[in-house]
Amino acid sequence: MSSNKQRREAAQRHLQRQLERRAELAQRRKRNMGIVAAVVAALVVAGVVLLTTGVFKSDDKSAAADPSAGSTAASSGAVDGSDGSCDFKADASGNPNLTDVGTPPAKVETTGTTTLTMKTNQGDIGLKLDHANAPCATAALQFLAEKKFFDGTNCHRETNSPGLQVLQCGDPSGSGSGGASFDYPTQVTGKETYPRGTIAMANAGQGTDGSQFFLVYGDSLDNNPNYTVVGTIDDAGLKVLDAIAKKGIAGGGTDGAPATPVTIESMTLAS
Fold it and tell me: How confident is the model at residue 93 (pLDDT cuts 50, 70, 90)?
């Protein structure tokens, strides 16, 4: 028969084994949680990268895209239109959300600037277009403004998250897949940046710029030089954009239609 001392020692050994097993299980659970957290973090980062890469893509030009011209410009560092001529092509995709107002003249300005006044129901936004940096895009916007293409249209999209703060306009259908019935090469060198105050063209891939553009009110799109930089926004216009952003996005979140509709009442060349 075991003595009391032996029974106590056996009980202590049993308790010690239980404590060791519990410690091992706890350590194993901790490792597993760390692995899960790492996987989740990687998925989140990948999602953000994918979102940023395609954030300004619209569907209006996908069927009629000519990616070769845009890709050549990006790889060679050349800016299409620098010789004073642009390849404006009528869209043949059959997209019902496109609005036909013709195509701009092939001959374009390659020097100087043009100022547009974007009058909205939230206030006036002054836009300075740079002919030297983006001759085709500036010619397209100027042509569309003269045709009153933008008048009475809504800015259909706002994004408001770290690294991506813009208001997107230029689609009369308001669907995000519409625009003018022509496209032209993306004008990028691969060195583009999009700081606060930038105007740039949205696209559905290289070579599919049209009428949709975005106004940057917070530094955006690091390491993503895929959009033609067409000009800058004046200080008064940035204050209007800040006020629009402060009102938020419809339904909450960080991407969608502005909570308070933003209507372009007119887009005119400043006198």
Answer: confident
Average pLDDT over residues 201-214: 94
Q: Are 161 and 255 in contact (CB under 8 A)?
A: yes
Instruction: Give the separation between CA 74 and CA 69, rounded to whole angstroms.
Output: 9
- Chain segment 111-138, per-residue pLDDT in tens: 999 999 999 999 999 999 999 999 999 9
Q: Residues 126, 218: contact at Cβ < 8 Å?
A: no
- Return the H-helix or E-strand segment holding 143: helix 135-146
Place of tokens 């975005």: 214
| pLDDT band (50, 70, 90) for residue 23 | low
110 in Cβ contact with 139 (< 8 Å): no
Q: Which of 23, 88, 37, 91 is nearest to 62 (CA)?
A: 91
Rounded-to-integer distance, Cα 69 and Cα 206, Å = 8
38 by DSSP, 3-state: which? helix
Residues in contact with 197: Cβ distance below 8 Å, sequence separation at least 6, in sequence order: 216, 217, 232, 233, 238
Taking alpha carbons only, the member of 190, 135, 195, 144 closest to residue 169 is 144
The more confidently predicted of residues 40 and 92 is 92
Q: What's the order of all strands across the beta sheet hosting 213-218?
A: 153-154, 263-269, 113-120, 123-130, 229-233, 198-201, 213-218, 164-169, 157-161, 255-256
pLDDT at 55: 52
* CA–CA gap between residue 271 and residue 80 (Å, rounded): 28
CB 228, CB 134: distance < 8 Å:
yes
pTM tops 0.90: no
